[in-house]
């Protein structure tokens, strides 16, 4: 079983690479954003609870998010592992994820950060914004703000995983195939 946390600034290619990795290694890709949208759209108990916080403009408490992730893990007993995307974002969340996986006799095997130059990512996102319709991909100041938030929140997480010798940095520039190959080399060492 392989359990990965995928890091990267917006536009770094996490979603694209997660799709290749899930196929190659029979992993379940758990995108926190997708899990939130699914639970809210389907009116689950956790979705209704999360929506109550979101509607007030508040952050959804870690406990609610962890319970959603726990449900996703439990829904996929045949997976050969999981790719966590968008979670954890804080040390407290990383500890909660470790505890959840420990309950299931699992662990995070590696965290992989897709690294790319900000200017390259800004161009990628502006291009994506032309076809995606996402307003947050069409405004350079909003993009830079998302990068600042990533830098602020993710830096402590890198240290958390480096202390466990589970942090890997991968060059996120190049062809999709080249980047997938770099990620596969990291996974082969686990």
Automatic annotation (TrEMBL):
It catalyses: AMP + ATP = 2 ADP. Coiled coil: none annotated. Residues 31-60 are annotated as: NMP. Pfam families: ADK (PF00406). It is an enzyme of class 2 (transferase). One of its GO terms (cellular component) is cytoplasm. The keyword Protease does not apply. The keyword Transmembrane helix does not apply. One of its GO terms (biological process) is AMP salvage. Pathway: Purine metabolism; AMP biosynthesis via salvage pathway; AMP from ADP: step 1/1. Gene3D superfamilies: P-loop containing nucleotide triphosphate hydrolases. Keywords: ATP-binding, Cytoplasm, Kinase, Nucleotide biosynthesis, Nucleotide-binding, Transferase. GO terms for molecular function: AMP kinase activity; ATP binding. AMP binds at residues 32, 37, 58-60, 86-89, 93, 134, 146. ATP binds at residues 11-16, 128, 174. Catalyzes the reversible transfer of the terminal phosphate group between ATP and AMP. Plays an important role in cellular energy homeostasis and in adenine nucleotide metabolism. Belongs to the adenylate kinase family. Consists of three domains, a large central CORE domain and two small peripheral domains, NMPbind and LID, which undergo movements during catalysis. The LID domain closes over the site of phosphoryl transfer upon ATP binding. Assembling and dissambling the active center during each catalytic cycle provides an effective means to prevent ATP hydrolysis. Monomer. This is Adenylate kinase. It comes from Galbibacter orientalis DSM 19592.
């Amino acid at each position: 079983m392989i359990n990965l946390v995928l890091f990267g600034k917006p536009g770094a290619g996490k979603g694209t690479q997660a799709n290749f990795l899930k196929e190659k290694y029979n992993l379940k890709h758990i995108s926190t954003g997708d899990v939130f949208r699914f639970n809210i759209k389907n009116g689950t108990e956790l979705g209704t609870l999360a929506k109550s916080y979101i509607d007030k403009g508040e952050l959804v408490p870690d406990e609610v998010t962890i319970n959603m992730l726990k449900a996703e893990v439990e829904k996929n007993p045949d997976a050969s592992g999981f790719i966590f995307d968008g979670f954890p974002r804080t040390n407290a969340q990383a500890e909660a994820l470790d505890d959840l996986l420990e309950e299931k006799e699992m662990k995070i095997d590696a965290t992989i950060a897709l690294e790319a130059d900000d200017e390259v990512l800004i161009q990628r996102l502006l291009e994506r914004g032309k076809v995606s319709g996402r307003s947050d991909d069409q405004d350079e100041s909003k993009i830079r703000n998302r990068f600042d938030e990533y830098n602020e929140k993710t830096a402590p997480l890198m240290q958390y995983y480096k202390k466990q010798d589970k942090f890997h940095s991968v060059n996120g520039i190049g062809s999709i195939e080249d980047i997938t190959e770099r990620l596969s080399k990291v996974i082969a060492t686990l």
